[in-house]
Amino acid sequence: MRSRENLIEASFALVLALLFIYSIVAARQWPFNAALFPTIIGVAGFGLAIGVSLVVWWGRGNNSVKGSGIQGDLYLEETLLGGQALRRTITTFAWLVGLVLGIWLLGQKLALPLFMLFYLKAAGEKWWLSILLTLGTVAFLIGVFDQVIYVSWQDGVLFSWLGIDPI
User: Fold this and answer.
1) What angle do CA 73, 115, 23 make, to 5 degrees?
2) Which residue has the higher pLDDT, 81 or 28?
3) Of 61, 73, 124, 167, whose CB is crowded by the most CB atoms within 10 A?
4) Dihedral angle sign, alpha carbons of residues 87, 129, 158, 107
5) How far, CA to CA in Å, does 141 sit from each of 44, 96, 108, 147?
């Protein structure tokens, strides 16, 4: 029997499959080196999304049975129905919007470490641990993505508005 939740989850997986197809088709127009990553991820993601959709559609992915050990994306505990789930969702999206705005305004090299530091402090970590983890992450990001892979970092618009050369 197909429940409403199964139909929603299967439909969502099909939408993801279509997005992966789009990424594969769009990447065909790019140079080989640029198209390699989205093509590999697109093919793997398409296969997984179709597989999830079929498993859920045929009822083997029933996520509404409590205590069955299967907890899918749409499973919601009864304790979270009193508005706590909505608050958590809004908080998560607020953090993500803050990250995107920070990257747009300050650039990736500055916004990513600041985001991590603020997130760790908001999660209740001690200052020394938050700073230590943030510095370790900065060393990893700069060491790997800047010095080894030579990734082009997004510069923030604030620096261009102020006429300052970014980090």
Assistant:
1) 50
2) 28
3) 61
4) negative
5) 26, 19, 10, 9
